[in-house]
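For this section, I looked closely at the sequence of one protein beside the tokens encoding its backbone, which the following lines show:
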Amino acid sequence: MGKATTGTTQHVGGTKDQGRTTPPGHGAARTPGADVAYDASVQTASARYVDKPVFRSDLVTIGLFRCAPRSPHFRDSGPPESFLFVFPRTAVEIAHEGQRPFLADTRVATVYNRGQRYQRRPVDPRGDACEWFGVDPILLADAVASIDPRGGNEPRMPRRGWVSCPPWVYLRQRNLFNRLRSGPASDALGVEEEVVLLLRALLTGAAERSAEPRPESLALVEAARRLLAESLGTPQTLSGVAAQLGYSPFHVCHTFRKLTGASLHGYRTDLRLREALNRISAAPRTDLSDLAQELGFSSHSHFTARFRRQFGVPPSAARNAKAAPHPRPRLGGAPESQLARNGDPPSAHQ
């Protein structure tokens, strides 16, 4: 996601070279017109590389990125040419230049300043799959100033490279992107306002985050997050997880909850549900019972109940992009200091 250009409002989902945009470190759209739907069967041997905008206006650009681990662009696809926030659909390790790497999974949104260099390493065999949102510098500066007036008027994304992504934010960005993929935007104003809402929610959560814990604690939690991301459908025990990480069960359990605000079980369930959301929205005919079993839920009813509890809608509502309900932003019921925390996951990023 890097060359996020702005200009006349357009739906550019299937137009060659229109609104060419590069997500952070992702190159230009090299496969225009290709089928770029999320594909759970992408193999590591594939060299697939797709970077494609689906919407562009004077203020925002929205696009998708798909890069298989064996693509020559995977490790370093260049610095972004815009300010971006990105929603991962597969887990990948990101390392900003001069900083420690962190795991980008579906519990976080990664952020990039214009010109920021970084590299990635594979975690999921499907490679890097994500949706990216480029924003105008003045729009970003205003958003930052609205949260912290002392920060000046400079456009900047949070330095650590990621922000926590609450369930309602994850669902709203999925709904927005699916609507844009299904056809031209009927109202650019509505799309732009939705992006502003997402941006402010993420920045609010980042502003409320406390000081960095000790490096060794961060390293432990990063390793635990990676283990959970790599084994979504695999049964786990606390003693088994602790043994794989090389720490005592108590230390793993205590440190993970202290730094993330979530239990290991709760964090893994959240990852499973977001994976399910991605699968269902990409393939509406997905059998929900089979999906529930594959992701480790005890039954279809258990899966449906957890999905509704997490996103406020049943799995069936995610099948149709145009009909999918819009979760309400939690701006009124809870103070803004809680807006985007939701178990703020740690980063090894300093």
